[in-house]
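Dear colleagues,

I hope this message finds you well. In preparation for our joint manuscript, I am sending the Chemotaxis protein CheW (Telluria aromaticivorans) sequence together with its predicted structure, so that both groups work from identical material. I would be grateful if you could confirm receipt.
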Amino acid sequence: MKVLVFHIGAQRYGLHLAGIRQVLPAAALRELPLAPPCVAGLLDLHGAPVPVIDLDRLAGIAPSPPHYDTRIVVADYSLGDGSLRALGLLATRVEGVQQIAPGLLLDAGVRGAPFLGQVASSDGAMLQLVEVDQLLSPEVRVLLFPEGRA
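The corresponding structure tokens are as follows:
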């Protein structure tokens, strides 16, 4: 399985490459007044608004200053009714694509957050998968995707 490797704070994480639409340089975002701190803003992607989540803030750590390799990862987010929407993820220090053998992935036992998935040891360092569909709380999901309301 191929994953995009990036950092949340000092720790390495990965996203399934199959669920990624594109990876963009960090860009100016339109602020969303009264949005939770994890919502970085809206990205204008070819005329379509794409909500962007700051992964550092979502994880409860101080946002990292922008780096030369800070990116907005546009991923597929399932609304649960079979439809997919674009969701931007502000990721610090994107390292690139890495192949992970499925047999190396193990259940972490303790997740710490609902969006954290399996763990693998790769290149001498631990890497934990992020499950995009589990990133948003129900309140944030309704705020960002009101048409996907259950």
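For the figure legend, we might mention the following. The chain has one domain: 2-137. The chain has a mean pLDDT of 88.

With kind regards,
E.M.
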